[in-house]
């Protein structure tokens, strides 16, 4: 589990789920070199609740930021060969 924190948001990534992706909730897609870069992009966007990381290609991995997760939408976590799904636990704190 990886955790990020700032003054008002704590984000914990759950263990990866290989071969799965959350569909229907992606709000941003980008190319990244590593899975950690995808997680950092999610942490920086307060809408992000989970990520799908695609297999490595010529330009890196496809990183999809989702505005939902497997808890809110369990039926949307579907098989997607080569992808890795990572849900989060988000705790917002008032300053």
Distance between the termini: 25 Å
In terms of DSSP E residues, the strand content is: over 45%
Q: Please give the number of β-strands.
A: 7
Taken in chain order, the helices and strands follow as EEEEHEEE
| Mean pLDDT across all amino acids | 89
Helical content band: 10-25%
What's the alpha carbon Rg, rounded to whole Å? Answer: 13 Å
Number of helical regions: 1
Find the structural class using helix and strand composition: mainly beta
Shape: globular
- Taking pLDDT < 50 over at least 5 consecutive residues as the criterion, the unreliable ranges are none
Biggest sheet: strands, sense, closure?
7 strands, antiparallel
Explain briefly what this protein structure is:
The chain is mostly beta strands.
SSE layout and pairing:
Elements: E1 2-5, E2 9-13, E3 17-22, E4 26-32, H1 35-44, E5 50-53, E6 61-66, E7 77-92
Characteristic key phrases:
95 residues, 7-stranded antiparallel beta sheet, mainly beta, single chain
Explain this structure to me?
This protein is mainly beta and 95 residues long. Helix content is 11%, strand content 51%. The protein is built from 1 helix and 7 strands. It has one helix at 35-44, and strands at 2-5, 9-13, 17-22, 26-32, 50-53, 61-66, 77-92. Strands 1, 2, 3, 4, 5, 6 and 7 form a 7-stranded antiparallel sheet that branches. A hairpin with a 7-residue loop joins strand 5 and strand 6. The longest helix has 10 residues, at 35-44. The two termini are 25 Å apart. The model has no long low-confidence stretch (mean pLDDT 89).
